[in-house]
Structures are given as structure tokens and as C-alpha cells.
Amino acid sequence: MRRRELMAGTAALLAMPVQVLRAQPADEGSWPRSAQVPGGIARVSLGPAAERPKAFAENDIPLLVLGDAIEWTALVGIPLSAVPGERRIELRSTSGARRTLGYPVAPKKYSEQHLKVSPRTVDLSPADQARYERERDHLAGVMATFSEAGALPPSLQMQVPVPGRRSSSFGLRRVFNGQSRNPHSGMDIAAGTGTPVRAPLPGRVIDTGDYFFNGNTVWLDHGGGLLSMYCHLSATEVRAGDLLRTGETLGAVGATGRVTGPHLHWSVMLNRAMVDPALFIAAA
Question: Which of 36, 81, 94, 151 is the most buried (most CB within 10 A)?
């Protein structure tokens, strides 16, 4: 940072109310780990400002901004479909000024699995296809949820929602009968039916439902565009609008939806991009 910018930032800091200094979370050690690859998270420095600036990814998607008046940082979820190279975000100040900032995305090769299965498990019937499309449109609205980041907990390090073996890796691409499917967008954890599934962070329930692929599902909003999803549940114990604390039960492991056995599918979404949940686990 240039000396003039540092002096200006210090002057603004001394002139502002004390409470601005307590924007949460300000400890970078409590943030998810950075991994600037498809399916990862980039940390983009926004510099000093008296108030939390607003930053946006492509298609005007708002970003999670953390830190304090000395240094603000945008945490950017990188889509699994991202092409390696430079990507850009837009910073908008309270005065209306705009500027763009770039960050690099490195390539990452995820595993691929080729499977031969019955055609009926790959090709949907017209009725199932229509149901899937209805659910897809509804879930697009759920995934667009963005609540202000001011209520975020002091730490974004998540507890694993259920104990068990990780049975499928994030980013794994499956090819059924020669037909490639979207990469695996979450973490699968093998556990017995009925095992309690607990909230990894405080959050508000924003959706529950029984979906064709995902079965019984719960979505949580943690603030600032950080969402999490829990699929294939045998039971759901919450309703939309419920507020959960870390460790509170939201449902139980099951095998609902299109699955071959009981497990939890856990996804984490940041600015509408599915990212690797392992980046949020302290000991992962």
C-alpha cells in the first residue's frame, strides 16, 4: 500500500465511530481457507474504508465482505465451472464510485468416475423431468438469498454436521453410460439412518422440501450470501424461518431422493457458487 493511501486510511479510521472497528468477523484465522481454484474461495483485498463496502461478482451477484475499517476483504466463491485465468469483481463505494479488481484462478483437475447403470436411472421420464424443472426454478430463488453480513458469527469455521466417513469427494465428475453429469457439488458423509444432523454454524432456515434428486432437504442462511444445504434426510425437524444455533439438530440422515444408501449430502454455497465444504472445517 502506498504511504499516501495508508495515511488517508488512518485519518479516516481516527475520525469514525468506535463501533465501526468491531465489524465481525475480523480475525482472518476464523475465515474459510483460501483456494483460488474452481470450487474454491478467493480472498480479494478491498483496502480501507470507514464503512463496509459493497462488492459484486459477475452478473451483479453480491459478495460476502469481511474485516474492519483498516482492511476489508471480499470472500469470493469460485464456481466449479470457472475457466482458469483472471476473474474480476466490482467494488462499489458508498459515494457511488466503482472500480474493478482482478484475482487469478488456477486450474484443478478433479477425479472422474465412469459407471454403467440401467438407462432408467439416467434418463428421466417426462413426468420426472417436469418435476425436476419445477424444483430447479424454485431452488434458483432459494440460492439467490442474500442477507446482510452484519449478523455473521465471530467465526466462520464450521462443525461437521454429522460424524462419519466421507464417502464421495467434492468436485468428482460421474459419467453414466457415457453421459457426463455435473460435478459433485458437496461432501457426502456416510452415516446410519436416523443419525442426527446438526447445524455447523448459526443460521436461519430458508427452505425445506422433498425434492426429486435431493430427497428431504434443508437450506440454511448464515448471512452475506453464505448458505448450506443438507440432503437425503430421513426426517426434517425444522421449518422455514427457524433460527438455529451451532449444534442444534435440523434433521436426520436418510436415503431419500435419488441415492443408493443412507448418507448426508452437505453443500456450502457462497455468492451462488457451490464451494468445497472442507475449506470451512478447521482440521480438514
Answer: 36
What is the three-class DSSP state of 162? coil
Measured CA to CA, the distance from residue 76 to residue 66 in angstroms comes to 11
Exposed e or buried b per residue across 128-151, where buried means at least 16 C-beta atoms within 10 angstroms of its C-beta: eeeeeeebeeebeebbebbbebee
Average pLDDT along the chain: 85
Handedness of CA 98, 58, 102, 47 (dihedral sign): positive
Structural domains in the chain?
A: 3-105 (2.60.40.1590), 112-280 (2.70.70.10)
User: Which one, of 247, 243, 246, 256, lies nearest residue 217 by Cα?
Assistant: 256
**Which pLDDT score, from 0 to 100, does residue 175 have?**
72
73-87, pLDDT tens digit by residue? 999 999 999 999 999
C-alpha cell belonging to residue 76? 469470493
Q: How high is the pLDDT of residue 276?
A: 94
At CA 273, angle to CA 134 and CA 157, rounded to 5?
120
Confidence of residue 7 (pLDDT cuts 50, 70, 90): very low
CB 174 within 8 A of CB 181: yes
Q: Determine the residue type at 201.
A: L
Using CB atoms within 10 A of its CB, is residue 43 exposed (0-12), middle (13-18) or buried (19+)?
Answer: middle
Burial 158-180 (b: 16+ CB within 10 A, else e): bebbbebebebbbbebbebeeee
Hey, how many other C-beta atoms are within 10 angstroms of the C-beta on 121? 12
Give, rounded to a whole angstrom, the gap between the first and last alpha carbons of the chain: 33
The model's pLDDT over 221-259, given as tens digits with 9 standing for 90+, comes to: 999 999 999 999 999 999 999 999 999 999 999 999 988
